[in-house]
Amino acid sequence: MINEPVINIKGVGDKLYQSLVGMDIRTINDLLFYFPNRYDNYEIKPLNQLVHNEKVTIEGEIIGEPSLTFYGRKKSRLVLNVQVEHMVVKGVMFNRAFAKKQLQAGEIVTLTGKWDQHRLQITISNYKKGRAKAEDPIQPIYPLKGDVTTRQLKKLISTALTQYSHEVVEILPDEYLESYKLPPRSEALKQMHYPANFQALKHAKRRFIYEEFLLFQLKMQLLRKRHKEATEGNSQAYDYRKVDHFISRLPFKLTDAQNKSLKEILKDLESPYRMNRLLQGDVGSGKTAVAAISLYASLTAGKQSALMVPTEILAEQHYQSFKELFEGYANVVLLTGSIKGKKRKEILAKIKSQEANIIVGTHALIQDEVLFSNLGTVIIDEQHRFGVNQRKTLRDKGIHPDVLFMTATPIPRTLAITTFGDMDVSQIDEMPLGRKEIETYWVKEQMLDRVLDFIAKEVEQGHQAYVICPLIEESDKLDIQNAVDLYHQLQANYEPNIKVGLMHGRLHSNEKEEVMRQYAQNQIQVLVSTTVVEVGVNVPNATVMVIYDAERFGLSQLHQLRGRVGRGESQSYCILLADPKGDVGKERMRIMTETINGFELSEQDLQLRGPGDFFGKKQSGLPEFKVGDMVHDYRALETARNDAQDIINAGWLQNNPNYSRLYKLLKQEVILNGETLD
Ligand code: ADP
Ligand code: MG
Hints:
Helices cover 41% and strands 19% of the residues. By secondary structure, it is an alpha/beta fold. Strand 12, helix 13 (388-397) and strand 13 (402-407) form a beta-alpha-beta unit. Helix 6 (185-193) packs across helix 7, helix 7 (198-229) packs across helix 22 (634-650) and helix 9 packs parallel to helix 10 (287-300). The longest helix has 32 residues, at 198-229. Bound molecules: adenosine-5'-diphosphate and magnesium ion.
C-alpha cells in the first residue's frame, strides 16, 4: 500500500529511515512525491541554440595541447581548444591540473559548464572523455538532508515507482485534464523523476502546480465557508442612530470608499457570523477613521472592543487621538508593555470590569493576565507585523469576537489570494479629497548638503522634516548608534535656530512619548529616527521625509515611510539618499520616484524580491508550495482559485462522484493540519 511507511521498501533500514523522516519522507507516497528542485541538462544542442550564461553541454575534438598555468597558491587554470561543428570553442577549467593528462590533442570530449556566447567559451564544471551517452540527458537534482545520498534516493524512488505507481490514482476530474491539457497523475509523476524531455517535464510540472494550487484554494475556501456558517459567532446589535451621530461629528466627510468598507464591516458585526475581514488601504486613505467608527459601533451593542497595534509609539498616538475623538462617547484605556505597577493593575481592573470599553494597546493585550469582560470586536492594525499565533491568541480571548485586520502595506493580488484566501476583503481605494501628491526624488549621498539646505528652507516656512538614519543590517544596536551620530551631526548643522530631535526603539517609553509630543507640537522641527516611525505616525505639518540608504529598504517599507508626509495641505517631498550598486537597486529607486500608488509598488516589490521577503521571513505566515511559485505561476494560481470557487459553490465535492477522490485527499490533508472539514 502506498500509505505504508517507507521502511517497508527493500533497502531501507532503521538508519536510512530516520534520515528520510528528517526529510519529511515518512510514507511511500511521500517518497514518490519528493520532487527534484531542479534538473541538470546534459542534452547536446547545436552551438547556435546555446543560451548565454546558461549551463550547457557540448561535444567535440580537442585541438592542440591544452595549456596549464599556475597562479597564487595552489591555483591553476587549464585551457583547451575544442572543435565543435565548424568552430573552435575555448574550454576553461580551474584548479584541476590533473585533468591535463587525460585531455590530449585528438581526443573526443563531452564538456558541461557555463556558456559564454560572446567569447565562445565554456567554463567547465564537468568533463567526460568520449561522446555523451544518448540516454538520460536530463538529470534531476533532489534537495538532500542528513546523510542520504543522491544515489540512494534515486534508487529508492525507482523501486517505489515500479512497485507502487499503479496505486497513484487520478484525483482531478477528466474535464480539467482535458481543458488544461494536463497529463494524468501517474504519468506526470514518472516524468517528474525521469523526464523523457523538457517538453514532457514542463507538462508534468504544470499538472502538479495546478493540482497543488487547486488543493490549497479548495482548502482555504472550505475553511472560510465553514467559518461563515458557524453560527456561534456574535451578533452585535449596534445602534445605527448613535453611529450616524458619531460620524456626523467627525471633522470631515467620509469618502465613498470609506463608507463602502464601513458598511461591509457593520454588516459583519450585526450578522451572527464571525467577522474575519481584511481592510486594505494605502497610507493615509483613512483606515483609522473607519476602525474608530467600527469600535464605537461595537460599543453601542454593549460590547468591549480593542485595537492592537505593532509599536508603542503608535499605541500612544492612537490612544491620544481616540481620547479626544471618543470624549463623552467611550472610556478609552491604553495598555502597553511599559505601563507597569499600580497603573497597570488599575487598567487591568478596568478592562475586566468593562469600565474600559475601548482598549488600545500593543501585543501586551494578548498576555494571560489581560482578561476582557465582553470583547465584541478586535481590530489588528498592520496585521502582517504580528505573527499568526499572536492574532489567534487575541481572537481566542473573547467568546467569538469579530476580527478586522488592517494593513497599509497593500498586499499584491497574488499574495492576497493565497495568504488571505480565507478572509473577506474590504478595500479603501480612494484618497480623501485635497491631498497633494508627494514629490519623490532620488539623489546620491554626496548631495547631502543640498538636502540639508532644502530642509532648512522648508522649516523656515513653518514645516517639519523626518530624517531616517542609515541602516545597518540586522543590528538594532548599531542602527541606534547611527541614529545618535546623525543626530549630533544635524544638531551641529542646525541648532540653535532649528531644533533637532532623536527617536529610536531603545528610548524609554516616556522619552519616546516626550519626543513625539514635542514633534507633534512643532517644538522639534527635524526628527532623526530609525524606522520606528515607519507605521502610522501622523504629524500633518511634516513635509519632508529624507531616507538614508534607501536602496536597502523594501519598496513597501519606503512607501510606508513616505506616507509619514503628505498628510496635510502643503506640498510634501520624499528624498531618497542612495547609491545603489546594481541594476535592481537603481530600478527600485526609479520605481519609487515614479509610482505613488501603493498597490502598484507592492506588485513591483514582490516581483523584485519574491514572496519570502515580502512580509519579512518569520512572520509571513505564507504558505509554502512545493512545486508552484506564487509569483511566477500566478496565472495558474488565479485559475485554480476560480475553479475552486466554482467547485465549492456547486457543492461538487460532496455531491459529484467525479470529485470524490479530490475530496478524500483534501480531507486527509486538512486533518493533518489539525482541522476537520465536516
Ligand atoms: P490610514 O490609517 O489609512 O493611514 P488615517 O485614518 O490615519 O489613515 O487618516 C489619515 C489622515 O486623514 C488623518 O489625519 C485623518 O484624520 C484624515 N482623514 C481620514 N478620513 C478622511 C476623510 N474622509 N476626509 C479628509 N480627511 C480624512
Ligand atoms: Mg493607520
